[in-house]
Amino acid sequence: MDFTLYWFMFPVSICVATSAMLSGIGGAALFTPIFVLIFPMLGPQYALATTMTAIGAALLTETFGFTSGFVGYYRRKLINFGLAKPFLGIAVPIAILGAIAANHVPGQVLIAGYAGLVLVLAFFLIFHEKQHVEHATLSRGNNIATATGAFMTGMVSVGIGEVIVSQLTKRGIPVGVAAATSVLVVIITVAFASLTLVLQIIQDGGANAMPWNLVCWSIPGVIIGGQIGPLLQGKFSQRGMELSIATLFFVLSIAMFFVAFTRPAMAEETITWPNGATVAVSLSYDDALDSQLDHAIPALNKYSINASFYLTLAHPSVYSRLPAWRAAAAAGHELGNHTIYHGCSAGKPGREWVAPHLDLDKRTVADVVAEVTMANTMLHAIDGRESRTYTPPCSDEMVGGENYLDVVAPMFVAMKSRDEGMPTGSSLLFFPSGNTGAELIRMVTEHRQSGALVNLLFHGVGGDHLSVTPEAHEELLQYLATNRDIYWVDSYINIMSYVRDQRSGN
Ligand SMILES: [Zn+2]
Asked: Distance from the CA of 461 to the center of ligand 1, in angstroms?
């Protein structure tokens, strides 16, 4: 886990907690959209694995955000514990139920639920009238409001704080005591809800599934913000704060509805990797190069790491060093299909080297499909295996203006560059060339949000084209081998077979 990744959340959290304090709104209402909307925009390495992870991290942060307020009210003896009890009796169990329910509904539903709730909140902030203090008893309607607020808090992080204060002030409780008591109810409810969410996240994905590297910045931020908030109280008009938060909620609501209906699936589909690993890494080596036999395979074998070698079967090494390729397969590496002749589209920039008879712009789909089929037969003759994966030469998908990958897809367990079955945004491709060991390691460490698949597509290792040095390559292998609890490194066919099995529920 890269603990510096979310450093910017420290100042951001101070600001969020300060404005939440000034407007009387639960801070999680603002953290959830930052985690769900803004993080994926910053880059794939910032995206949290699931919507539930985002809500869990927001609620955990909010628990601490309220501690400053709680301590302050407690010292001033404003908290009425007897008054809080009936609320807690309803709110705590129902918030736990909401948190458990969150685990069983799709992320889009959580996002839409959040969007609906902040929309209601925005209207409430704009149109509510100053509470008229009059006596009333705790009615059934109030219980339903408390229960609904608690359930929504457990599920989408917003709700409980918003319903308690208005109920207490309606009953004639002085505003100071009402606010103090509501903070007690909120902090206990939110603590139970976040604990339930965090435990489920850890149970499903291991201890590393919880973004500790995020909350280690957001929690200190809200604790400090909670101290600044009261100091600024009275410096801004409460009404002005309410209206600006209402406007913000309005915008957030629209954005979150948009995400709920357009983003295909953020995460409930997260893949969990074997043995508690959070990231799968596929190392692959294209074009059947001699330097791979000379340097890559001995290093991989030294660290007992399985990889995939995509053979261009017309490459001289397949003829001259056939026993070495066979031995690689016997050692556990995958020999993948990279066609026989490595045809590419000559029309793209920098493709002067493509021979005219291998130009995919001029060939037909039937021609290329026949070549790929024959390559499978030859690979079967080499390693005796029945199934394998494919890497399209030059990552080209079109032949004569038609997509040929759709036609050859049924012949393979999976194809590099497509990673079918992986949730959107969770698989990444890198083409190392001339990188140092530290840079190669960064490619895997920077994208270790849980459930990710990182593909490193190598060519030469200590020779040939697009090469990296054997030292840089070995540095990466050594790092991966000593961090097997985080990284599951295996051949592409093994990783994608695992993804397929998980998808079909085997
Ligand atoms: Zn290639």
From this structure: 14
Other beta carbons less than 10 A from residue 2's beta carbon: 12
CA of 466 to the centre of ligand 1 (A): 10
Would strands 402-403 and 308-311 be described as parallel, antiparallel, or unpaired?
A: unpaired
CA 501 to ligand 1 center in whole angstroms: 28
pTM for the whole structure:
0.56
pLDDT tens-digit profile of 232-243? 766 777 777 778
Dihedral sign (CA 84, 86, 91, 92): positive
Query: Which residue ranges does the chain devote to CATH 3.20.20.370?
Result: 274-503
**Mean pLDDT of successive 10-residue segments in the chain (506 residues)?**
86 86 68 84 74 86 80 80 84 86 79 84 72 42 74 72 69 74 83 89 76 92 82 73 82 84 58 84 96 96 96 96 96 96 91 91 93 96 95 92 91 89 80 91 76 92 92 95 91 93 68
Domain 274-503 class, CATH top level? alpha beta
Distance 294 CA to ligand 1 centre (A): 18
Q: How many A from CA of 287 to the centre of ligand 1?
A: 5
pLDDT at 98 (0 to 100) = 85
Distance 460 CA to ligand 1 centre (A): 11
Of the candidates 5, 3, 7, 22, the one whose C-alpha atom is nearest the C-alpha of residue 225 is 22
DSSP 42-99: H-TTT--S-HHHHHHHHHHHHHHHHHHHHHHHHHTT---HHHHHHHHHHHHHHHHHHH
Per-residue pLDDT of 145-164, as tens digits, reads 777 777 777 776 677 766 77
- Ligand 1 centroid to Cα of residue 283, in Å, is 14
Q: Write out the two tokens for 344.
A: 């590419």
**Among 365, 364, 366, 390, residue whose Cα is nearest residue 376:** 390
Query: Separation of 406 CA from ligand 1 center, angstroms?
Result: 19
